[in-house]
UniProtKB/TrEMBL annotation:
SUPFAM superfamilies: Cytochrome P450 (SSF48264). It holds the Pfam family p450. This is Cytochrome P450. InterPro entries: Cyt_P450, Cyt_P450_B, Cyt_P450_sf, EF_Hand_1_Ca_BS. PROSITE patterns: EF_HAND_1. Belongs to the cytochrome P450 family. It comes from the Bacteria. Gene3D superfamilies: Cytochrome P450. Coiled coil: none annotated.
Amino acid sequence: MQNTANAAGTDGPELVDTAPLVEDLYPALAELREAGPVHRIAGTDGRPAWLVTRYEDVRRLFADPRLALDKRHAAPGNYSGFSLPPALDTNLLNMDPPDHTRVRRLVVKAFTPGRVEKLREPVRRVAEELLDAIEPDGRADLLAAYAGQLPIIVICDLLGVPQRDRRDFRAWSDALITPDPARPGAAKEAVGSMLRFYTELIAKKRAEPADDLLSDLIRVRDDEAGDGGGDGSGDGRLSEDELTSLAFLILLAGYENTVHLIANSVLTLLDHPTALQELRADPSGLAAAFDELARYEGPASLGIRRFPLEDIEIGGVTIPAGETVLLSAASAHRDPAHFKDPDEFNPHLGRSGHLALGRGIHYCLGAPLARMELETALAALLRRFPGLRLDVPRERLRWRPTIRARGLISLPVAW
């Protein structure tokens, strides 16, 4: 992998060309990992960032309090992630303690294993209905018709989003996560549409609360506001921007990551027919297979960008305070220094320590829901379609053109 000219015009080593990370992710990461633990690359907006590639470094830094998420700690000219208005950006992915601790505590009870388990049967019914709809055709783009439908239905039901308001969400999400170079204004338009959507939805829920997570969060916000303003500055308070941002984060993260977790897992099993047959014969093995599926082909190429609060040394490289650090979970998961035969998929090895769900205080809030959705989606699919197979040559499958996430553009299958 070659260095490129430092187009950003900042001091420091030249930026590594990130095109191979899109075109051939794992061999490109292996080359970087072998060459060194830290590399300077162009972030998804072209501005510089430091990519950390080795498992022990990535794991340690996921929980290192010297690395902040709050963009206020970013030095000028560095990659800082999405450009969002405060009403969407005041979320857990841009917060450090104590605000992170306060806001997370308000929503964590919605995703406890016990509460999520109560959703298993409703999720199973949704999966069966989606499969009923496509079964007579004998073929489908499984990403669009199944993997892309199930998570949005589940998370919208949890939040209380009316059915009529769900149709545009995937287009907005795609525009934000994978911007189209031919439509440079699409991401900005999507952000505006999302902001209007969440603002209007919260207003409706305030007027007519229901038995759903968003109504619960609004109740928490408004009860606290009545006691002291609810500006988010006090212990236990939730500001209006934090409320809107929470709804945005729960819906976007609950949809986007799970879509690709399901689709990537289906592809992995199709690539490994012995494992597929074993799990079809004994679906109880899906719970244990989750961790290997998430490690082998998880939806997150990178962790959330971070900013050192002080100059920090990583693998012998000193990274100045305020510069952007990207922790590559995808690279860590294929590091032979930690995982034996990391490029092989083997759900029987019981490999522990994957980082697909994060680590430390930023461990994925919706992890129990993601596990349950994947197990339920795969169990229904494998049972209903015993002849499931790819409907195009394997080499024709394409991955989304971004280093931010690992997801297919489509997954044509037949049965």
